[in-house]
Amino acid sequence: MRIEVLTIFPEIFDSPIKSSLLGKARDAGLLEINVSDIRDFSTDKHRTVDDTPFGGGAGMVMKAEPIDRALQQIRENLTDPRLLLTSASGKKFDQKMANELSREESIIIICGRYKGVDERILELHPIEEVSIGDYVLSGGEAAALVMIEAVARLVPGYMGKIEAGEDDAFAWGILGFPNYTHPQEYKGLKVPDVLVSGHHAKIERYRRYSALKKTLQNRPELLETIELSDIDKKLLDEIKK
Ligand code: ADE
């Protein structure tokens, strides 16, 4: 998979894309991430990328020309890339979208800043606006990193056995189950007996029960969106008692 990032702060990406699994995936050739500076596509000597909004008001707007020029150049070398613009006004990013994006050959992420981009850029290119949540960031760079991290780990071969994604929160459509590691007892707190019983069916039932319980506590609305099995319904009844 190839990910192209357009930003006015390319240095923000230096460390995250070199570190950890993202860095390893790049070294292994599973993932190509290129970061371009939008200022390199401006044409004036001040490398201007923003200007005041027509109609007045506070704040600056990202100019269409440099972004358009950058997109034209990058799109030339890609077949049918998904174009995303980070924006608090975008469609909400979630695990489903991450799954979908992980199947793309290439993605271009434009990091919005200031009040946003000149709206005409959305008419010139088939861009989807994406938000990572209902809060406002100063810029889309952190949002782009969130999306890259969520998408990259789904690219086949990205995670080894140690970090298989099948057990992830949201892989089941609900939250994840609690995990424990050594020591078996810490400050008087013991790992639940069932997890050291070696009884796989009981462990599975316990994990499903715990995941449903956490979901009911923290994100009850998720339970409305998944199809609950008869066992799930029984477990939920037990939890609610
Ligand atoms: N830019 C500012 N706020 C944002 C958000 N919540 N998601 C994505 N990009 C943003």
Strand percentage: 15-25%
Q: Return the CATH architecture of the largest domain.
A: 3-Layer(aba) Sandwich
Order of helices and strands: EHHEEEHEHEHEHEEHH
Indicate the radius of gyration in whole angstroms. Answer: 22 Å
Largest sheet: 5 strands, parallel
Summarize, please.
Helix content is 33%, strand content 17%. The protein is α/β, with parallel strands linked by helices and 241 residues long. Helix 4 packs across helix 6 and helix 7 crosses helix 8.
How would you describe this protein?
The protein has helices spanning 14-18, 20-27, 64-76, 95-102, 121-124, 141-152, 200-218, 230-240; strands at residues 2-7, 32-37, 50-51, 61-62, 82-92, 106-111, 127-131, 185-186, 189-190. Helix 4 (95-102) crosses helix 6 and helix 7 (200-218) packs across helix 8. The radius of gyration is 22 Å and the shape is elongated. The model has no long low-confidence stretch (mean pLDDT 95). The chain has two domains: 2-153, SPOUT methyltransferase, trefoil knot domain (Alpha/beta knot), CATH 3.40.1280.10; 185-240, Orthogonal Bundle (Trp Operon Repressor, Chain A). A hairpin with a 2-residue loop joins strand 8 (185-186) and strand 9 (189-190). A five-stranded parallel β-sheet has the order 2-1-6-5-7, sandwiched between helices. It has 241 residues and is an alpha/beta fold. The protein binds adenine. Adenine binds next to strand 5.
Q: How do the helices and strands line up, and which of them pair or pack?
A:
Layout: E1 2-7, H1 14-18, H2 20-27, E2 32-37, E3 50-51, E4 61-62, H3 64-76, E5 82-92, H4 95-102, E6 106-111, H5 121-124, E7 127-131, H6 141-152, E8 185-186, E9 189-190, H7 200-218, H8 230-240
Parallel strand pairs: 1-2, 1-6, 5-6, 5-7
Antiparallel strand pairs: 3-4, 8-9
Bound molecules: adenine.
The site of adenine (ADE) has 12 residues, from strand 5.
